From TrEMBL:
Protein name, UniProt field: UDP-glucose 4-epimerase
Gene3D superfamilies: NAD(P)-binding Rossmann-like Domain (3.40.50.720), UDP-galactose 4-epimerase, domain 1 (3.90.25.10)
Stated family: Belongs to the NAD(P)-dependent epimerase/dehydratase family.
GO molecular function, one term: UDP-glucose 4-epimerase activity
Organism lineage: Bacteria, Bacillati, Actinomycetota, Thermoleophilia, Solirubrobacterales
Native species: Conexibacter stalactiti
Pfam families xref list: Epimerase
Reaction(s) catalysed by this chain's protein: UDP-alpha-D-glucose = UDP-alpha-D-galactose
Length: 328
C-alpha cells in the first residue's frame, strides 16, 4: 500500500513508518519538523515538510492519492497543554480537521489515529476498558478526545474507515530510532539521563499515592509492540466504522519499580530524589486490553526489561538525542 504518515519524524511515527517500510509498503512522511527530527525519518520514506495548519498545501499534498493514512502529528506535552490550551486545540484539533478534509477530497478511505488514555482522565475503575467514561483532565487529552469525536462523525457521514488506538505509556526504542523530546518529561528517558549523569537525579513525583510502594503506577508498552498494532489496525479499518481500542500491555509498574529496572539493566547507580506529586497525575493507569486482543489479534510480546534495555541502547547511541545527527 501507499501510506501517508503524519508526524513520521516523531518518536512513535518514525518507528511505525520504519515498520511499514519493512513490511513492503510505500511510505510518505508528512511532518512540519517543528518537534520532529529530520534524522528520525527512516531511510526509504519520502518526507514532505508541511504543517497540518497549512490547509491548502496539505490538500495539494494529499491529492496525489494514498491507500491509507496514519495520523501521529500532534503536540503531546501535558503541562504545556494546560498552560497553552489554544496551542493544543489549534495544532491537534484544527490540524486534524484539515487532514480529514484533505483525506476526504483525495478519496483516502482508511485512517489510523494516535489517540491516548489521557482521554479518560482519572478513572475510577482499573484496569480501564474502552467503556471507561471520557473525562480528560488536561487540554492534551481533551484535544485528542475532540479528534476522536470528529473521526466518528466523519466515518458516519462520509464512509471513512478509521481506527483510534488509545496508547498508554509508550517506551523503548527500535533499531536506531528512539525517544527525543525537548523538554523530556517521560519517566524512562529521565531515569536513564540520571544514570548517565546527564541530569543530577531523577525526581520521583509523589510518594504518598494509594499504591503498594506509594509511587504512581503506569502501563508501559514497548514501541515495537505498539507499532505492530498499527499494522493490524490498518487491516482492521472497515468502511463507515470508527473502531476504538485501548493499547497497553495490561501490566502496571510503579515509578520505583521502573527505577529499579533501570538499575538492573544498566548496572549503574541511579540517583533519585523524592518530590511532590506532579499536578494532574492519577495514581494508577492500567489498560484492559481484551478488546484489541480479541478483535485485532494483537498481544504484547515485550517486557519492562526489554523496554528499558532498548531505551538504554538508544540513550548510549545518542546521549543528546538526534541533535547533530546526520540527516537523510
Ligand atoms: N515521573 C516521575 N519522574 C519523572 C517523570 C515522570 O516520577 O521525571 C512519574 C510521573 O509522575 C508518572 C509516571 O512517572 O506517575 C509516568 O510519567 P510519564 O511522564 O512518563 O508519563 P505519563 O503517565 O505522565 O503520560
Amino acid at each position: 500500500m501507499k501510506l501517508l504518515v503524519t508526524g513520521g519524524a516523531g518518536y512513535i511515527g518514525s518507528i511505525v513508518a520504519q515498520q511499514l517500510l519493512t513490511d513492503g509498503h510505500e511510505v510518505v512522511v508528512l511532518d512540519s519538523l517543528a518537534r520532529g527530527h529530520r534524522a528520525a525519518v527512516p531511510d526509504g520514506a519520502r518526507l514532505i515538510e508541511l504543517d497540518l495548519l497549512e490547509a491548502d498545501a496539505l490538500r495539494d499534498a494529499v491529492a496525489e492519492g494514498f491507500d491509507g493514512a496514519l495520523h501521529f502529528a500532534a503536540y503531546a506535552l501535558v503541562a504545556e497543554s494546560v498552560a497553552r490550551p489554544e496551542l493544543y486545540y489549534r495544532n491537534n484539533v484544527v490540524g486534524s480537521l484539515n487532514l480529514l478534509d484533505a483525506l476526504r477530497s483525495a478519496g483516502v478511505q482508511r485512517l489510523v489515529f494516535s489517540s491516548t488514555c489521557a482521554v479518560y482522565g482519572e478513572p475510577e475503575v482499573i484496569p480501564m476498558d474502552e467503556l471507561t467514561p471520557t473525562r480528560p483532565v488536561n487540554s492534551y487529552g481533551a484535544s485528542k478526545l475532540a479528534v476522536d469525536g470528529m473521526i466518528s462523525d466523519e466515518c458516519r457521514a462520509h464512509g471513512l474507515g478509521a481506527v483510534s488506538l488509545r496508547y498508554f505509556n509508550v517506551a523503548g526504542a527500535s533499531g536506531c530510532l528512539g525517544e527525543d523530546h525537548e523538554p523530556e518529561t517521560h519517566l524512562i528517558p529521565n531515569v536513564l539521563r540520571a544514570a548517565q549523569g546527564l541530569q543530577d537525579a531523577v525526581k520521583i513525583f509523589g510518594t504518598d499515592y494509594p499504591t503498594p510502594d506509594g509511587t504512581a503506577v503506569r502501563d508501559y508498552i514497548h514501541v515495537e509492540d505498539l507499532a505492530r498494532a498499527h499494522v493490524l489496525a490498518l487491516d482492521g479499518a472497515r468502511p463507515s466504522e470508527h473502531r476504538i481500542f485501548n493499547l497497553g500491555s495490561g501490566d502496571g509498574y510503579s515509578v520505583r519499580e521502573v527505577i529499579e529496572a533501570v538499575r538492573t539493566v544498566t548496572g549503574l547507580d541511579v540517583p533519585a530524589v523524592e518530590a511532590g506529586r506532579r499536578p494532574g497525575d492519577p495514581p494508577r493507569l492500567v489498560a484492559a486490553n481484551g478488546k484489541i486482543r480479541a478483535e485485532l489479534g494483537w498481544a504484547p510480546t515485550k517486557s519492562l526489561t526489554d523496554m528499558v534495555g532498548d531505551a538504554w541502547r538508544f540513550a548510549q547511541q545518542r546521549p543528546h538525542g538526534y541533535a547533530g545527527a546526520h540527516a537523510h
